[in-house]
Amino acid sequence: MYVLHIGNKNYSSWSLRGWLAVRLSGAAFEEVLVQLSGTYNPDWRRFSPTARVPALRDGEVVVWDSLAIAEYLAERHAGMWPSDAVARAWARCVAAEMHSGFSHLRNDMTMCIRERVDVRPWSPGLAADIARVTEIWSEGRRRFGGGGDFLCGRFSLADAFYAPVAFRFQTYGVVQVGAAADYHRALLAHPFLREWEAAALAETTIVEADEPRVLYRDKIAGKQP
Asked: How many CB atoms lie within 10 A of CB 154?
């Protein structure tokens, strides 16, 4: 059985991607929750050489990066990427783009599922990242979405990589329109995301380093009458 180490569900976007990949595989797995603290913890090297989450163990094999976890599982379980070659290439590209890019979105809109805050005005970099996400969502639905509600029709690893963005947009009130809005609603309504969200909302741990009302205190205060 796989063993997956993840961080707090309210905050850990990378853990969500790894967890969704395992859920999508359909394989049995043990979930091990590691309490985040906002600082590096060298003790975590017992399950990951980087002391970070997520980390997947398969017997003697350890896979410690969310995209690597996705690909490792896709090699062992069918149907995790789109079956069409063109759609599959596109899905891999947009997953890799999310994995390596969108720094303004990550830094300016930390994931905190239970919160609802407004951090406008957005920086030019954040606005550009949001526009690019909208473009990807709209393109996927237009080109490959005919067979279902997700980027390439059926829920796939591409959707797993944009799931944290769906929660971030919900938290910070990022409103989509058209096909991107339909996709956003479908993603938040997926049973896997609803399961993760319910667990996140049940958590009581507060990590101030990831709390929007701490990180963006001045901006939020400036909006109050």
From this structure: 15
State the sign of the Cα–Cα–Cα–Cα dihedral 10, 14, 16, 19: negative
Instruction: Tell me which H or E stretch contains 202.
Output: helix 191-202
Give the integer Cα–Cα distance in Å for 91 and 158.
Answer: 5
Domains annotated on the chain, with CATH: 2-74 (3.40.30.10), 85-202 (1.20.1050.10)
33-69 tens-digit pLDDT: 998 877 778 888 999 999 899 999 999 999 999 999 9
Instruction: Encode pLDDT of 179-222 as tens digits.
Output: 999 999 999 999 999 999 999 999 999 999 899 999 999 887 87
- Residue from 70, 78, 59, 60 nearest 1 by CA: 59
